[in-house]
Specification:
seven-stranded parallel β-sheet; 8 helices; 7 strands; SDR_fam
C-alpha cells in the first residue's frame, strides 16, 4: 500500500457528500488536505472537525470550479508548501432536474455542463502539468453509473458523466509513458445531497428516490477512492463501478415498500 501521509491531496466539492467523506477518510492518514468548495462556512467546519479528530493539516479554497480564472488563480496562488499536489479528486458535480430533453431548463443544462465537465477539465488542466513535471501524481474522477447507462429524464446529466468517462480514458492515454495514474470511480445510487440538489431543494421528493432500498453512503464511495489511491505505484485502477445490492442497473432497483 502506498503511504499518503507525505502527500498533498486536493478534493473539490469537499463541503458535503462524497467530497467531505473523502476528506474524512484521507485525513486518518494525516496527509496535507486542500479542500475546495463554494460554501466556505461548511469548509471551515469540516477543517475544524478534521483537525480535532486527526490533527489534520488543512488548507481551504473557497472556489467555484466553473470559473476558469478563479481556478487558475487559486492553483497559482497556493502557498509554496501546498503547491505540489499529488492526488486530485475531481468530485465537484451535480444534477439538475429530470425533465424530458425537449422540455429541459437551459439554466439546469448550463450548470451541469459547467460543473461536471468544464470544472473537472479546469482543475485537471492546471494541476496535471505539475504532476508530469515532478513525475508523480494521481487523478481520481468521480463519475457515475449515469456515464455508462442513460435513464429517462437523465439526458444531459448522463451526457456529462459520459464525458467524464471519456475524459478519464483520454487522459490515461495522454499520460502513457509517465508514472501518473488516472482513475474513474463511478457509483450508482448514493444518498447524499445529490437528489435534493437535483430537485432544487425539494426534500420530500428527494427522499422518495431512496425509499424502500438501502443506497450506498458517501463513506462507501470514499473507501473505494482511498483504495484506488493507495495501491502500489505500478498499479492503476482505471475504473470502478459500484452500486448498492438493491440496484442492478441505472433503472432497475429492488424496493421493499
Amino acid at each position: 500500500m502506498v503511504a499518503i501521509n507525505t502527500q498533498t491531496i486536493l478534493i473539490t466539492g469537499a463541503s458535503s457528500g462524497i467530497g467531505a467523506a473523502c476528506a474524512n477518510t484521507f485525513a486518518r492518514e494525516n496527509p496535507r488536505l486542500i479542500l475546495a468548495a463554494r460554501r466556505l462556512e461548511k469548509l471551515e467546519q469540516k477543517a475544524w472537525e478534521l483537525n480535532k479528530l486527526h490533527g489534520a493539516e488543512v488548507h481551504l479554497l473557497q472556489l467555484d470550479v466553473c470559473d476558469r480564472l478563479a481556478v487558475e488563480s487559486a492553483i497559482n496562488s497556493l502557498p509554496e508548501e501546498w503547491s505540489e499536489i499529488d492526488i486530485l479528486v475531481n468530485n465537484a458535480g451535480l444534477s439538475r432536474g429530470l425533465d424530458k430533453l425537449y422540455e429541459g431548463d437551459f439554466q439546469d443544462w448550463e450548470e451541469m455542463i459547467d460543473t461536471n465537465i468544464k470544472g473537472l477539465l479546469y482543475l485537471t488542466r492546471y494541476i496535471v502539468p505539475g504532476m508530469v513535471k515532478r513525475g508523480h501524481g494521481h487523478i481520481i474522477n468521480i463519475g457515475s453509473i449515469a456515464g455508462h447507462q442513460t435513464y429517462p429524464g437523465g439526458n444531459v446529466y448522463c451526457a456529462t458523466k459520459a464525458a467524464v468517462k471519456a475524459i478519464s480514458e483520454g487522459l490515461k492515454q495522454d499520460l502513457l509513458g509517465t508514472p501518473i495514474r488516472v482513475t474513474s470511480v463511478d457509483p450508482g445510487m448514493v444518498e447524499t445531497e445529490f437528489s435534493e440538489v437535483r430537485f432544487h431543494g425539494d426534500t420530500e421528493k428527494a427522499k422518495k428516490v431512496y425509499q424502500g432500498l438501502q443506497p450506498l453512503t458517501a463513506d462507501d464511495v470514499a473507501d473505494v477512492v482511498f483504495f484506488c489511491a493507495t495501491r502500489p505505484n505500478h498499479v492503476n485502477i482505471n475504473e470502478v463501478i459500484l452500486m448498492p445490492v438493491d440496484q442492478a442497473s441505472a433503472t432497475l432497483v429492488n424496493r421493499q415498500l
